[in-house]
Amino acid sequence: MFSNPKSFLSSFAATNEPFAVLEDRIWLLEKADFQNNNYLCYSGEFFLLQESVYVPFLERDYYEQRREEVEREASRVIKQKLVDPLNRKKTELESLDNLFSRFQDDSVERFIMVDVFNAYHTRYNPREVEEEPEQNAEISSVNIPELSLPQLTVSDLTGIKTVLSRVVGERILCLNSNVFSLVKNSSKNPLNTHLLFKGKRYELEPLGKISEIESAYQQELFGNVERQVLRRSSDFQVLLEQLRSLKKEREERLKEEQKKYSLHTSYESDEIGFRKTGFDTYEVYIKLNPFIIKKNNEYYAFRKQIRIGTTLAANGSTLRITAPARVLTPPYHHPFVRDDNSICYLVNTKKDRWSELGISFEAQDFSDKKNRKRLAKQVALTLNEGAEALTRRYRQGTIPVKDLTPENFPEEYLPGGRSEAESLGLKIYDNDFQGVRKCR
Questions:
Q1: Using only C-alpha atoms, what is the Rg of the chain?
Q2: Has residue 424 been placed in a domain?
Q3: 365 and 307 within one domain
Q4: Of 87, 158, 243, 341, which one is least surrounded by beta carbons within 10 A?
């Protein structure tokens, strides 16, 4: 509110002088014993309407006298209603983008379903996939264009429609501190209280005390500054609405991403899948379809589809591959599978086999993109090594847990040889190889 909010209505309230407002002009009432085209009939007495000052002039003078306060209020509105909301929306959007980025970085489910699955699906052999160049995680920036701040002058505060008319309408009458709205009426009784203006007859409908009308008028005069500033800021309003819509879209996108990954306790994509086994542990596995091993020109069919997998243990921003892949669907009778369902892997006496493959069973940070890609490939390679051990290990000369012979594997042995093997339509792995190495 202005420091001195009183308007011309305050003067009329102080003097109790009757007046009317018609066609945006003040009309003073003068008692008379005759009628003309503009008069008031009230309690059997007649009052002539005398044309006075134009209301828009009064309102313009009102603002001129408070020019500095108008400018301060306009500046406040520009800052609080336009500039600050734009900056807040930008900050909110950047926070959403950062949250989305952190979710992508920190979600174990997303790491498995996106990074690990991709690393496995895109392999010919995971160890042969070239290391991708590091790319910095991108956070979408919101660029707010430079907009010209609205300029407000005193003349902008008065227009075709007066501020007063927004409060009381276009036609009022004030008598004895009471304000009336003038309503058209066709009654011909000359003794009824009425006002005749330019040949049109109006009746009086109470609006309230002039003090009440003055209070509402003061608030409207002050609020008009904000209204006119906002009317001249359509570019800001459009941009604000665009940012609100963008924020809503990104909030929905984040919810969808969270629903897509974090709410999953299990998921499969083709032959690879995972399931959450504890608060911070995840079992990642691949499905190995039935296959045939050829060894010493003998054929053995392993007809059971199995799952081979390992466990990932999360702790904050670190993730650990707990062990080499093992058979997850016992029992499984196989030369390289121990009684505890662990798989026999090749030992290289010159160098640790897992180090040679670039696989670590220590906790590793996966909070940045490069580490995630590297760790995902290690998980994929761990799974692939499990499948290799069951289908091709003889080619590497590893000593099995149990020799592959008809006596040890009577159910798997195919006495019909190659023709019987081919008739089954299963993939055949040729494991004939000379040389022996120990396994672990």
A1: 44
A2: yes
A3: yes
A4: 87
Output the six-digit token pair for 326. Answer: 């093992």
Q: Verify that 167 and 295 share a domain, yes or no.
A: no
Produce one character per residue of 41-56: b if its CB has 16 or more CB atoms within 10 Å, e if not.
Answer: bbeeebbbbeeeeebb
Residue the block writes with tokens 């209020």: 73
What is the domain count for the chain? 2
Q: What is the mean pLDDT of residues 285-293?
A: 97
Supply the range of the domain harboring residue 361: 266-430
Instruction: Evaluate if residue 435 carries a pLDDT over 80.
Output: no
pLDDT digits (tens, 9 = 90+) for 85-98: 888 888 877 777 76
Nearest to 324 by CA among 393, 390, 376, 385: 385
Task: Please provide the average confidence, as pLDDT, over all residues in the chain.
Answer: 85
Burial 387-410 (b: 16+ CB within 10 A, else e): bbbbbebbebebbbeeebeeeebe
Report residue 192 as tokens. 């009824």
Residue 101 reports pLDDT greater than 80: no
pTM, two decimal places: 0.52
List 172's β-bridge partners, or say none: 21, 181
